[in-house]
Amino acid sequence: xxxxxxxxxxxxxxxxxxxxxxxxxxxxxxxxxxxxxxxxxxxxxxxxxxxxxxxxxxxxxxxxxxxxxxxxxxxxxxxxxxxxxxxxxxxxxxxxxxxxxxxxxxxxxxxxxxxxxxxxxxxxxxxxxxxxxxxxxxxxxxxxxxxxxxxxxxxxxxxxxxxxxxxxxxxxxxxxxxxxxxxxxxxxxxxxxxxxxxxxxxxxxxxxxxxxxxxxxxxxxxxxxxxxxxxxxxxxxxxxxxxxxxxxxxxxxxxxxxxxxxxxxxxxxxxxxxxxxxxxxxxxxxxxxxxxxxxxxxxxxxxxxxxxxxxxxxxxxxxxxxxxxxxxxxxxxxxxxxxxxxxxxxxxxxxxxxxxxxxxxxxxxxxxxxxxxxxxxxxxxxxxxxxxxxxxxxxxxxxxxxxxxxxxxxxxxxxxxxxxxxxxxxxxxxxxxx
Length: 434
Fold this sequence. Notes:
- This is ArgE/DapE family deacylase.
- The chain is about 35% helix and about 20% strand.
- By secondary structure, it is α+β, with helices and mostly antiparallel strands.
- α1 crosses α5, α5 (about 140-160) crosses α12 (about 405-425) and α10 (about 350-360) packs across α12.
- The two termini are about 15 Å apart.
């Protein structure tokens, strides 16, 4: 076990977590009732700032991302929207005395994807409804439950009168779902540590690899007309199908190539998703323009810009096979995610400490997973040399209707994080005694 603490210390903290459980569930419900979609994060971030300051007693700062500053940094992804009144919130528990352990960042994102169409839900997406051992709501699994877990893990340690041997930084960030610029802002402002944990809800397992992600937009121009003369017009939606089929062909192509070793057992590691399509404004008009927006995955070790160049060249080559698109070349642009993939060495101390914390909480050895998506861990590992992984609760329907989290697993994650903090940061002599 970590410096100057024992089984009694851990039992005391775990007991406090049990006794505070109703408060943690209530806190998670309050978080879930904020519809914190892109651009609407200000209210929940004010709530988080007040919690960090008043409930946890942390030195708290709210920082609005500065595009001019972060755009010069590796890992930056280009947004198409403003950051006005959309801060990240950081709370710091400064260790009192010489550093005896390792400093730690606990980070989570409050931005969530849309709950539409809400008609598909059986529960209010913003109601944080509890049924049995599950809580339902948009963002409850991904990933407000994880934030609640690390907040109440630290709260238990503080309220048990334990003094840590190194600083702990709590972060509530924005834009994990589209750029990662919220996390990048905290790093740019100097919030660094010896390690970091992010409680993404992958089910009580550690994360050892994730793919890279880019977003692109394809604008197809046709020749619009009244439907009466449709035979002499060119329908932009129909021409867009050429590019949709090209994206499908590209998806088959990249998945037919040799796999990255971390993904050797994943059947379909690289997803190309056509997420949005916009066209037309009248049923009896032949549309003149059609815009497709898509997401492309790629393996760790590949440069996002190289993938962008490759995708653009592939699509234009396919477009040239069509007589109309050969002369009316589609416009292909990129925005949002410019995210490299990550492959991690699980022999690092961070992972061994997490394995021990998991085993102390669950009595079982911890497994690892790889994901065909991205998380903020890439920014810490790739550009700031901060070992970081994900470990979070169990749930389902992430980004879908009736998203839910298993509350029992949230309590387990809270205890695992508490055990991790004690071991990683260390405990000052005398503060953990009965």
